[in-house]
């Protein structure tokens, strides 16, 4: 998770409130001192940090506070609101319209990750069902077109560029006209950058802008320069009509807080953040969920959105099977595919309340994805009978030759095939138990529909199946039950108190 260190320090400062027996001026000052130190370390402007401190102090007046009020919650709520204010410019971000051409032009300095970010944005919209394409109008940097071509080919995104044409305006115009004629919905134009702000860079940007008349100009900002982001963003905004900002290289960089707060000061909304080199290391930026994740409070709304994107409700056949407690190897394969579609595990983990932002490191995340791919490769070597049988595991135990054949086909050991079958058996048993619980698959409030004793048993079964580290990170059985409850509330649209500390 981005700015993990900052999140840990602020969460630690807020926890000092829970540990204090009496909440008074001294406790409040100690907590604010820790929070301000953490923000300054993250390179947030000292003026903004001072403002945050004063605003929290002005809200909390111990003398005027009524006796029945929960002081802890009031202080936590005030800190949350001020952190939101710190990085929220209060400007609505531009949104593309479905079914028409949306031309997006990228600007920024060389080395900020502009070309990679173009691909990430195109890939993001492509996964959501938009018809996307890329145009390389960067003729200044040697190898720019090769890089875009390579990225686009890997992500299977149509692209346009030229090795012979040296005028970026001509390339941009031709590319936009070509893709408009082919009814592309998201047309992304990558422009040249320079090592520093130069008149030639701004002149070229203006000419390209006038030629293609973009619907949105995105300024790509390198987070590693911290507070200097503000002057850069303003310089670009003065020359062209920058409508939104994408901040790159936010993967754990100390100056990230400075970049976020500095850009907010320019009144340009940050729409995405880049958190790594891979195509899916890219997150939509919404202020409240971002601060919520930063403080380890999760982002249930984002998690529900991710699940809804998979359109699991459309899979009536699977829902019917689950109701009857049936689960095949093919069903497991499809669920693995869904997990892969949801994006990096660390992003998903960060959305679950109670998980620390650094629960899954890049290394362990890559290992998990590699393991998932290996399991899918094993299932690719199975035949239809094995994949669709309701007794998949028994089929293999009755005829050991099947496991030998699958292992040979997938290039793995027989032991690895048997491990997959053991995992499948656990899943199938779990689904059988879920199928036996009346009301679990009905719409509405699960607490009303389902016998609580059965839910407790189900939670215990889930706990047995989980990695002990994961369960411990969630706060044991109690944490698991709390997460299931929150997730169910989120699924039924009850987001009212999601960002409110009063229910915590």
TrEMBL record:
CDD domains reported in the protein's UniProt record: SRP54_G
Pfam families membership: SRP54, SRP54_N, SRP_SPB
Annotated ranges, domain SRP54-type proteins GTP-binding: 269-282
Biological process according to GO: SRP-dependent cotranslational protein targeting to membrane, translocation
Domain of life: Eukaryota
Catalysed transformations (reactions): GTP + H2O = GDP + phosphate + H(+)
Keyword Endoplasmic reticulum among UniProt keywords: yes
One Gene Ontology CC term in the entry: cytosol
UniProt keyword annotation of Amino-acid biosynthesis present: no
Transmembrane segments: none
Location of this chain's protein in the cell: Cytoplasm; Endoplasmic reticulum; Nucleus speckle
Primary site of residence: cytoplasm
Gene3D superfamilies: P-loop containing nucleotide triphosphate hydrolases, Signal recognition particle SRP54, nucleotide-binding domain, Signal recognition particle, SRP54 subunit, M-domain
Molecular function in Gene Ontology: 7S RNA binding; endoplasmic reticulum signal peptide binding; GTP binding; GTPase activity
Keywords: Cytoplasm, Endoplasmic reticulum, GTP-binding, Hydrolase, Nucleotide-binding, Nucleus, Ribonucleoprotein, RNA-binding, Signal recognition particle
Function of the molecule: Component of the signal recognition particle (SRP) complex, a ribonucleoprotein complex that mediates the cotranslational targeting of secretory and membrane proteins to the endoplasmic reticulum (ER). As part of the SRP complex, associates with the SRP receptor (SR) component SRPRA to target secretory proteins to the endoplasmic reticulum membrane. Binds to the signal sequence of presecretory proteins when they emerge from the ribosomes. Displays basal GTPase activity, and stimulates reciprocal GTPase activation of the SR subunit SRPRA.
HAMAP family documented for this protein: SRP54
Entry-linked PANTHER family: SIGNAL RECOGNITION PARTICLE 54K PROTEIN SRP54, SIGNAL RECOGNITION PARTICLE SUBUNIT SRP54
Protein family membership: Belongs to the GTP-binding SRP family. SRP54 subfamily.
Domain notes: The M domain binds the 7SL RNA in presence of SRP19 and binds the signal sequence of presecretory proteins.
Protein name: Signal recognition particle 54 kDa protein
Native source species: Biomphalaria pfeifferi
